[in-house]
Each structure stands twice: as C-alpha cells, then as structure tokens.
Amino acid sequence: MDSNRFLVFYQSLHEIIKNIKKIETSYMKEYGLRSVHMVYLLRIHGSEKGSTVTELAALAKTDKALTSRTVKELIDGGFVNSRTKSEDRSYRKKYHLTPKGEEVASAINSDILDYILGARVDISEEDIQIFYRVLATFENNISLIANKEKG
User: Fold this and answer.
1) Cβ count within 10 A of residue 98
2) Residue 108: other Cβ atoms inside 10 A
3) Are residues 57 and 63 in contact, defined by beta-carbon separation less than 8 angstroms?
4) How many helices (H) and strands (E) does the chain have?
5) Residue 151 pLDDT > 60, yes or no?
6) What's the rounded Cα separation, in Å, for the pair 149 and 141?
7) At what angle do helices 2-31 and 99-119 cross, to 10 degrees?
8) Helix, strand or coil, per DSSP, at residue 120
9) Least confident piece of the model among 46-50, 79-83, 90-94
10) Is the pLDDT of residue 88 over 60?
C-alpha cells in the first residue's frame, strides 16, 4: 500500500516539476536568464533592504562562491547592483535590483501569482495551509533520511 502511495507521490512531484521547468524555461529565454537568476531576482525583489550573497546562497542551497559568480552575472546583465561604491566583494554586501531588474522581477512575480492562483482553483485556503505544512515536513524528513544515508 505505501509503495503505491510513494509512486503516486513521486510521479505527481515529477510531473509538477517538469511542468514548472517548462514554464520557467520559456519565460527565462525571454530575459536571457537561468532559473537560479530568477530565484535570486525574486529574493532581492522581496527584500526592502537588499540581499547578501550569504542570504542568497542559503536560499538556493549553494555555496557562496558559486552564488557570488551568479550575482556577478546579474550585475553584468544590468539586473542588480550594490549601492556601495567600494570594490569590496564581501559576502555581506547588500545587492538591490536596478530598474531593469525591478521590471523583470515584477513581471515574473506577477506571472507566478497568476500560475499559483490557477493551480489552486477549487482548493480551500485551509487545504493550501495543510498542503504547505505537510510538504515542508516531507522535505525535512526526506532530507534527514538522505543525509543519514550519506554519513
């Protein structure tokens, strides 16, 4: 019985991810961005005080050096900047959206809200709350199991 539930869970999750990637890929091509860029733009967009490389790395679950290189790509593309004038490459430096970055992040955010609203048709707010709570618990438990298997 549980193996059948696992298959349903796995196949459903796989389909959801596949369809999100399809939407994401077509959307990112329009801006010449990758999905990790989108995650960082949305994070910075949601932060009034800006975001550091350390914060972005924790969000994306990547190392700070890789995150720093990705932020540099966003700087080079004119999407983000640091309001400090120094050449300091500190992981504590706050990055903010440029007008171009704000425009793109706002458009992405608006589309995401449309997708979410479309995906939750006929699902009550109570069920949505339960879904996200259970999903977070699954993620945490599976992470604990996976990390236990490694060590």
Assistant:
1) 16
2) 21
3) yes
4) 6, 2
5) no
6) 12
7) 150
8) coil
9) 90-94
10) no
